[in-house]
Amino acid sequence: RYQRRVHGDRFFRQSSSRRQKKMGRKRATPKKRTPQVGQVLILLAGRYRGRRVICLKDFGKGIFLITGPYKVNGVPMRRVNRRYVICTSTKIDISSIEIPIKTQAIFARGKSKGKKAKPLCKKKCREEANFFKARRLASKTPPSKNKKILQQKVDKPLIELLRKLDPKLTKYLGCVFTLKMNDVPHAMKF
After folding, report:
1. Cα-Cα-Cα-Cα dihedral sign, residues 83, 86, 88, 92
2. Which H/E stretch holds residue 160?
3. 16 has pLDDT over 60
4. Beta strand residue intervals within the chain, DSSP E
5. Which of 24, 77, 82, 107 would give a disulfide with 62, using CB separation of 3.0 to 4.6 Å?
6. Share of the chain above pLDDT 90, in %
7. 47: Cβ–Cβ under 8 A, 6 or more apart, which residues?
8. Could you check whether the bond before residue 69 is cis, i.e. omega within 30 degrees of 0?
9. Which residues of 26-180 form beta strands (DSSP E)?
């Protein structure tokens, strides 16, 4: 059936008969669901990957406001891009909860007031101490009091709502999503 043809120093197999195209059923790729307000999402990347969170608001252009709530699983209110979440089938009616955040401006990073670290030159003359000193100067700032107050304003009624709907819902949100040896995420229903 197969003939060997020499091409340079290598052998290639070529079928004596033409290969026929596999005539299969064409399937359309499943469209990603866009998160809706009140839907439970799973974060795929970042510090909180694997955590289940609640979508609070749609800022448009694929950016959403989410929260853990913080007391349930330690995820604060933050912006998340659509690409980094999986939508689940669990939905919660949060229309009764007032969300005081109107724009994304609260999440914008301010300019640091501290000393800027000198950039490391390409030469190997810099010592390790300078490298770690630069890392300390560029450390993250803690969350502002304004953000903490907003977090409490949203979390308190949200946790009460979750406990009223189903006591197991807070445990569900507290669990981390992980994949095991033979799990295939493309075949799962979330």
Report:
1. negative
2. helix 145-165
3. no
4. 2-7, 10-15, 39-43, 52-60, 63-67, 78-81, 85-91
5. 82
6. 45
7. none
8. yes
9. 39-43, 52-60, 63-67, 78-81, 85-91
> Tokens in use for 140?
């993250």
**pLDDT per residue over 120-165, tens digit each?**
554 554 566 666 666 666 556 677 888 889 999 999 999 999 999 9
Closest by alpha carbon to 64, among 73, 54, 74? 54
Query: Which of helix, strand or coil describes residue 30?
Result: coil
Residue that is written with structure tokens 């252009």 in the block:
61
Q: How far apart are the first and last CA of the chain?
A: 47
Please give the structure tokens belonging to residue 1. Answer: 């059936």
User: Quick check: helix, strand or coil at residue 1?
Assistant: coil
Tokens of 86: 């999986």
Q: Contact 50/152 with Cβ under 8 angstroms?
A: no
Rounded Cα distance, 188 and 190, in Å:
6
